[in-house]
Amino acid sequence: MIYINQSLINKMLKEAKTAYPFECCGILVGSNGSEKEVCEIYPVENKNKVRAEDRYEIDSKTFDKIDREATKKKLKIIGLYHSHPDHPAAPSAFDKECACVWTEYSYIIISVRNGKEEELKSWCFDSEKQTLEEEKLKINRRKFIIGVSLIAFSFIFYFCIPLIFFLPLSLKVKAGSASISYFFSWGLTGIGIYFACKEGYEYLKQVVLKGFF
């Protein structure tokens, strides 16, 4: 089983749709102890320009650079991801050949049809069967939900700040309270974006705008 945050899933889906009708690719960085967890993803350029519609290639220097960065963070490369334009999220013969080289990796494949994501699956090498088998992928939405909740609360708090001026307080106290509340609101927004990432912020913004228009 492999764990991954919703925000990272969203990034991969967006990249796959942007690259369509060609394959996108990237590197999965995380931990591989008692539980395999993706902590970061690194989108990289597909170096295969001849058959970019059904092949991907990662530059070895880029791979080594990301490996060094991961090591500094006490993480490691635990897999790769790429898209399949107008094909299922199942490993091709080429994918299986690659997996025979890096047998310890997870391989996430994103199926994109007509520019829209269809499905996302993870695969890992089965040493007994000597082939790729589907790996259970567990999407961790906890950080995403916490982040979106904090951002939502900060928005509500922000729009309530003007109510301070209706309280039976001196103008100086009102102004000071409003200023503190203003910075507190933006602080909550920042923490929320840290947890939910930009995707969470954009998702909530779309929900709010849809409610008004």
Question: What's the topology here?
Answer:
Layout: E1 2-5, H1 6-19, E2 25-32, E3 36-44, H2 60-72, E4 76-85, H3 93-99, E5 106-113, E6 116-126, E7 131-135, E8 137-140, H4 142-160, H5 171-212
Parallel strand pairs: 1-3, 1-8, 4-5
Antiparallel strand pairs: 2-3, 2-4, 5-6, 6-7
Transmembrane segments: 144-167, 179-197
Pfam families: Prok-JAB
Domain MPN: 2-129
Descriptive overview:
A hairpin with a 3-residue loop joins strand 2 (25-32) and strand 3 (36-44). Helix 1 packs across helix 5 (171-212) and helix 4 crosses helix 5. It contains 5 helices and 8 strands, in the order βαββαβαββββαα. It has 2 domains: 2-140, Cytidine Deaminase, domain 2; 142-212. The mean pLDDT is 90. It has an 8-stranded mixed β-sheet with strand order 7-6-5-4-2-3-1-8. The protein starts with a strand and ends with a helix. The chain has 213 residues and is of the alpha/beta class. The chain has helices at residues 6-19, 60-72, 93-99, 142-160, 171-212, and strands at 2-5, 25-32, 36-44, 76-85, 106-113, 116-126, 131-135, 137-140. InterPro entries: JAB_dom_prok, JAMM/MPN+_dom, MPN, VirAsm_ModProt. This is MPN domain-containing protein. The chain crosses the membrane at residues 144-167, 179-197. Residues 2-129 form the MPN domain. Keywords: Hydrolase, Membrane, Metal-binding, Metalloprotease, Protease, Transmembrane, Transmembrane helix, Zinc.
Query: How many E-type strands?
Result: 8
Low-pLDDT runs of 5+ residues are none
Could you give the order of strands across the largest sheet?
7-6-5-4-2-3-1-8
CATH top level of the largest domain?
Alpha Beta
> What is the name of the CATH architecture of the largest domain?
3-Layer(aba) Sandwich
Total number of domains: 2
> How does the helix and strand content classify structurally?
alpha/beta
SSE order, one letter for each helix or strand: EHEEHEHEEEEHH
CATH superfamily of the largest domain: Cytidine Deaminase, domain 2
Provide the β-strand percentage band: 25-35%
How far apart are the first and last residues' alpha carbons, in Å?
42 Å
What is the tally of helical segments? 5
Largest sheet composition: 8 strands, mixed
**DSSP helix fraction:** 40-55%
Q: Shape from CA axes?
A: elongated
Radius of gyration computed on alpha carbons: 22 Å
| Mean pLDDT reading | 90
CATH fold-level label of the largest domain: Cytidine Deaminase, domain 2
